[in-house]
Structures are given as structure tokens and as C-alpha cells.
Amino acid sequence: MAKEKRHMKGRVKPGDVTQRVGVEQIEARGVNVKQLREKLIDAAGAEFTTYYYYTILRMHLAGHEDYKEICEDARLEDRAHFELITPRIYELGGGLPRDIREFADRASCLDAYLPENPTAASLLQILLEAERCAIRTWNEICDLTFGKDPRTYDMASRILQEETEHEAWFIELLSKERDGEIRPSGHFRRGEPGEAPYSKNRSFYNP
Ligand SMILES: [Fe+2]
Ligand SMILES: [Fe+2]
After folding, report:
1. pLDDT tens, 47-64?
2. CA 103 to centroid of ligand 2, rounded, Å
3. How far is the CA of 74 from the centre of ligand 1 (A)?
4. Rg (CA), the chain
């Protein structure tokens, strides 16, 4: 005998695939889903373009094997951030722009261009400022979702943990390279290149 259960029904009608309870519920808790979706697309654009530009920056750290390795971790972790957050955009009813040019243009951070006459110090400063933009971006997503959208918050806070580490790495390296000053980050090394200890997709989906 079927019984009424407290959560068996809601505003979304049974069988309606045009509405999402996963969206309705976070809207009811005060999330502006349209705004959040747009900010997530901008943030994903920044992760994707940063991954691209870090490829070039890493190449030009030639001769600095230690810097190359750390740049590579930050580069691959940005790819992991893009991979982690993109499915969430679709779950929220959004999607990536059809044209990659539009996607790159709307990125929430500036392009991390290779400077003219690159030196290790100039490259490290570009890396540092890209990480700082990422920290601002993911803190904003955390603020918009805290206590209201646990899934987006969890993803954003995982990404933010790695961005915060990345900033500390590049402060340490730039400080020593440019100013000869010791400002430790606490970093030793990732286990594998691009380890992404907080945001790795596989462990996220299969903890
Ligand atoms: Fe990132
Ligand atoms: Fe980063």
C-alpha cells in the first residue's frame, strides 16, 4: 500500500524533464541560479585559458627545472578545475559557449600572456597574479553558495584550497628569485604532476 511521504512531491511535476529539483531547491534557499551559472562559466573560462597560457609560460621557464615542475602542477590543476566545475554548469541548466572565442573572452581573469623578453621573475609574477585572480573568483563563488548550495560550494572550496596553495608557491619563488628574500610556502612537492589533491575528478566522483 503506497503511503504519502514527506518529500515524494514538490513543485516540479512527476515526469517533467524541463524543470530541475536540484535547481528549485537551491533557489528556494536564496541562490540566484542564473547569476551563479554565468559566474561559473566565466570562472571555467579563466581555468581553461589559464591552462593554455601556463603551457606557454612553463616552456619559457627553460633552465629552471624546479620552476617548471611547480608551474606544471599549477597548470594541470587548472585543467582539473575546469573539468570539475564544467559538469556543474550543465546540472544548473547552463552550458559552455558554442564558440571557444566567446568562452575565452568572458573568462573572469586576464590572459596570462608571455611577457616581452621573459625572465624567470617576470614569468613568476604573471603566474602569481593569475593565482590571485583565481582566489578572488572562487571566494566569490563560495560566498554566493555557502549554506545554500552545498554541491557548488564543495567544488568551489576544493578549487579554492588549491588556488591558495598556488599563490603561496609563487610568492615563495618570486620572492627568492626577484628579491632574494625567503618567504616559505610550506610546499614540498605534489606526488604526481598535477596531483590536484582536493579537486581531482576521480576521487571526487569515487571517493
Ligand atoms: Fe585553477
Ligand atoms: Fe591555480
Report:
1. 999 999 999 999 999 999
2. 19
3. 7
4. 20
